[in-house]
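We both want to read discrete structure tokens more fluently, so let's practise on a single case. Would you supply a protein for us yourself, any chain you care to pick? Would you write everything just below, so we can both look at the same thing?
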Amino acid sequence: MIDPAKLAAFTLVTGLVSLMPGPQMVFVMTQAAWRGPRAGVAALAGLQLGNATWFVMAGLGLGTLALTWPAAFAVLTAAGALYLAWLGLQAWRHAGAQPANDAPRRATGHALRDSLAVSLSNPKSLVYVLALLPPFVDPKLPVAPQLALLAAIAIALDLTVGAVYVAAGGGLSAAMSRASVRLWFERTIGTVFLVLAAAILVDLARRGGAIG
């Protein structure tokens, strides 16, 4: 069992991090506004599946291997940037083409797929997990149960905060029935994705992240 004081400290730190309006939560909110509230819930679920995957990787020791091979992080970072760019181009290409809640099952599936891909293509999530966990894990005790408990806490906090972002995005989805609003909103989303992708690639180049 993890020391209660350490558990409380982990919960506080993770809660504060979850409250920060990072790009993943903004992504959830835009999905809820763009594709509807149900898609926002699916996007939130996709992000948490990705987070759970990073916790599992850390528990299996794959994170240590990744940290000793910087090229792997460069590949994942570049892949994530290119995927964001693709999402941005798709948003521009299909801006205003469909009603906001057209084909809800398909929209929900796309939101889940896109958010999971965004989460898994972000190696910074693994770095965050590896940096955050050691102070709260007792190496004298079985590691797997401790990681499972910490992961459950982190994901529960993320889901709680994410629900607020889904609600905010869902409130905007009603306005998406207006073609002019939807056209403006989708082009704005596309531009944001393209700018984020460019910023990631520029930062990667500056840090000498080229593969080779």
Observations:
- The mean pLDDT is 76.
